[in-house]
Amino acid sequence: MHEHYPHQVLKTATRATLETDEGTLSGRCIAVASLRRHRIISAPTPAWLVYAEPLSIDLHALQAVVRSASSRVDDLCRAVQARCRAPVIHRRVTLALRLIDEMLDDQVSAHVVAARAAISLSQLQRVLSARTGLSVRRLVRWRRMRLAVELISSGQTVTQAAHAAGFADAAHLSRTVRMMFAVAPASGLLGTRRVGD
Predict the structure, then answer these.
(1) 166, part of any domain
(2) C-alpha to C-alpha distance for 164 and 156, rounded to whole angstroms
(3) What is the pLDDT of residue 88?
(4) Whole domain around residue 20: which residue ranges?
């Protein structure tokens, strides 16, 4: 069982089965909400796993897009992109997210982010938690992992991506990816494509 910040949709040609804390889900297009513990019990190959940031798209909209889109990667990416929206959040939170992204290759201090965004630390933590369900620390870990996945997809080695995203080493990145997605970054992230932000 694992959980991760993005919503997930599993699409298969025949029935797949997932287990969650709330029971078993079966079907050919199964949606799992952000931060919901789950594991894949069975899934035929090939299978599509589509992940999307909750701030950018509603889970049900994501499932509908994935269900109706063709199985061609470019078509699926275009369909998801067309439904993504710019998150409506306070401008200081938007600034804080941008500042976090700019600091990912080094230590990210919540105090520094709050000060540079002209927001109190407690307010930053409260608003980010309310909007994402994540603490500042978990949000930073997610943004680091997201950057590392993007770098691996663009051709960097796991070690290069780990260092560029602020992980101590490739092993640290691997542990983080395994904890969030229950896969190894080198094999589990092959073919990953990032769409939008």
Answers:
(1) yes
(2) 10
(3) 64
(4) 7-83
